Amino acid sequence: MKINKDQTGNSSSIEKRNLNEKPFFSKEAPDLTSPKNMKGVLVRAISFIVLLIAAYIAFTLQSDFAQYRLDRFNSSWGFAFFIIAAGLFLFKAGFFFYNLYLYFKYKPVDGVEDNKLPTTTVIVPAYNEGKQVWATLMSLAESDYPEEKLQLLAIDDGSKDDTWYWMQEAKKVLGSRLAIYHQPVNKGKRHALYRGFNLGNGEIFVTVDSDSIVAKDTLRNLVSPFVVNKKCGAVAGNIRVLNNEQKALLPKMLDVSFVLSFEFVRSAESTLESVLCTPGALAAYRSEAVFACLDDWINQTFMGNPSDIGEDRAMTNMILKQGYHVQFQRNAYAYTNVPEKYTGLYKMFIRWGRSNVRENLNMAKYVFTDFREGKKLGIRILFLNQILKLIMSYPVILLMFFFIFTHPILFLSSTLLSILIWSSFPVLFYAKRYKLSESFWAYSYSLLYTFGLFWITPYAIATASRRGWLTRELTDKK
User: Where is this chain primarily localised (predicted)?
Assistant: First the structure.
């Protein structure tokens, strides 16, 4: 396969890197006695104790709850609310057990032999990433993938920091294995990827965020589904948190959330061959599927404005619309940096929420048509669950505030009890997959989301037409 070169023409190899360095994606065992970890232990313990106390209070207030329910039943609107709430609960419970059934059916595809692997172009768009982009490119170069079948492209999207310098440093090490490109003006991640798609010549495109590190066998495992399933148009990788060993608490919570989102939810979706979003941090696409929708993708608009966010969800949606299968590879790991502060977290969620609104509306245009061969009921159920979340966001917020003002103690105790019950599944899931002590972050995260991020979806719906990445500017530390 032809490998594009930039103007430098360097040809040194990765062996120049210090062989005593640990792998980019490895993690040392944390010191549980350090202050930062003691703080984490305290937060998890307090979260769990608060939920247990709430459960006890809810138990002691059973007579009050019974009276409240009786009062609601004796009013016409209260009875109607009960019927609607019961129906929604049955749907959500049924959807959960449906996902559980699909999860147990899921099996990742094993990595195929070298001679069966397709030619692959890896595209790394970067903006204000600093030295992290160097680590990203090095981890990709160390992949267990035939060098002659791998094309590495890195595109600096008009960064304001030293990202271009670190790309050049990586080029000095990797030589002709890496081609680097610099866009003088920041046009957005979608445009950087667009340039990569047009420069690439692989049968498969892999996109990797510039703040992510991949495991040695990630690329092999990620592209193997395309070999065994000719209808496969895209594959989602398994995303874990890279910066969860720092003193910040949010990355630790998000790591537990990511495990549930990817290893449970996307495993279930993959059983239906209908993963709804291939993450920007690590995703693979069949090139012919990309080129079939590339013009629509780069020129996508929403409510009259160019779409400059949610490029991963948009690409996935357009590939699904073509009739291709979209799968998830649990054995293809990438570790990515996530926000460490509340402001960065809610901005990331707003961006995701806005693209979710846009793509669910786009999905509604084809999901009930004969858009692909075979069974389509599963993906339609997934879509209905997505739409239901959007439809119910405002009613739930209004009812929540009404409940708070009229029965604050009942609201608080019942809400915390619900968190204890529903969050126990991600706790058990993470404990089974990884580590029990870290799994208790699920309780802390649920408390944060319920009381600190509940407004995200309604706000994203109301501002769905707004543009802007929100989290791509310079940070204090790289």
Answer: membrane
